[in-house]
Amino acid sequence: MELSGLGREPAAVSQPYPVQFLASKPNGRVAANWANRPSDERYLNLEDLHLATRKRADFARVRTLKSSVICVESDGYSDHLALRLPGEERQIAATNWSFGQLCSLANAPSSYLRQLPAPLAAINLQHGLVSHGAEYIKTLEVGGDNLELRAVTGADYGRIWDHELVASVREIAGNGVTDSRWKVPGVLDWSTMTHNPFVKVTQETTTLYASDRDVFIFLVDDLHPIEAGRLATGEPDLYFRGFYAWNSEVGSKSLGIASFYLRAVCQNRLLWGVEQFQEIKVRHSKFASRRFSHEVSPALTAFANSSPAPFLAGIKSARETRVAKTDEDRQDFLRGRGFSKLESAKIIETVLREEGHQPESLYDFAQGITALARSRLHQDVRLALEGKARDLMKANR
Predict the structure, then answer these.
(1) What is the sign, positive or negative, of the torsion defined by CA atoms of 294, 295, 300, 305?
(2) Residue at 315 is within a domain
(3) Do 214 and 194 reside in the same domain of the chain?
(4) Which structural domain, as residue segments, surrounds residue 227?
(5) DSSP annotation string for 202-227
(6) How many domains does the chain have?
(7) Mean pLDDT, each 10-residue run in order, the chain (397 residues)
């Protein structure tokens, strides 16, 4: 296998390749989706995913209404509530998600209303909509044999449709399987410590998901690994690029993309050896659509087309920049950056255990600080430590 040199476009591989990484905590965002998505939320290519998300948008209707004109009804016999909206003769059913949104906009506790008999819940929710609700709300309705209320948001909610995100990803990835270098990832074989990018996309291996609440996409370029120096063993340290993107057109989460370099992906979709993690999030506020078109979509395209040279140069320089030769140097270096004596000892011990040598370079110390961060339970402390590790790498650029 030919490995890429600094600044050169990586060559495509023809077989699985060996990977190594610190025994560290992996990124579990993709794995959480892999573990919890039922079969009807899994897609085998971006073409089918786009078709499904576009179809539901084509059959949707968005309206801005006064909350007081929504009529909450119960037949008095069943435990089901139904709504009646202006201009509709038929009742419209609320999903669990939209019912919770409606309760929130009416200042009514949804957990309490769900426990009440339907007639009482209808009276309380109606009172909240008339007396305490937002003056104007925005509804997302789906027609067909059965009318369904998919979302109820504030009037200024800036909806970005799920199919719009999928379409942006398709511009760089095609079908996400064979059309471009961006594809559903392969799998790490723990028995041989090799990453195999030539794995068939199935319901079990796919990383393309969509439900009635959201869409989530994870793609990589694992056919073109890049060599970022050598490990302590003398073996090449191989990375490949990856990103995941998510959205919810019904308001259950923000829109966002995260890009990074990584070393391997497990069968259960844990990400190992993640570096250079960068994230953009967009709340569905009034100008969300503008931010998506002017910031998020271009950022995704820029990452897809970017050269790995700056990443490689940063890793290479950090590995070559020696900042400590003795135990005293190591302690002074870390103490001078605000670490306690105990923290400094843990960082040095971690590098020695996982890298097989005492920390000497900026890269060594950055890896040790990151490992210390992963051991912290509180997110704010963890993020602060990870920030210090990033600052070390940035200062060397």
Answers:
(1) positive
(2) no
(3) yes
(4) 17-54+162-307
(5) -TTT--EEE-SS-EEEEEEEEEEEEE
(6) 3
(7) 47 87 74 96 98 94 91 76 87 91 90 90 91 83 86 92 95 93 95 93 97 96 87 78 95 92 93 87 87 85 80 72 86 86 86 80 80 74 74 64
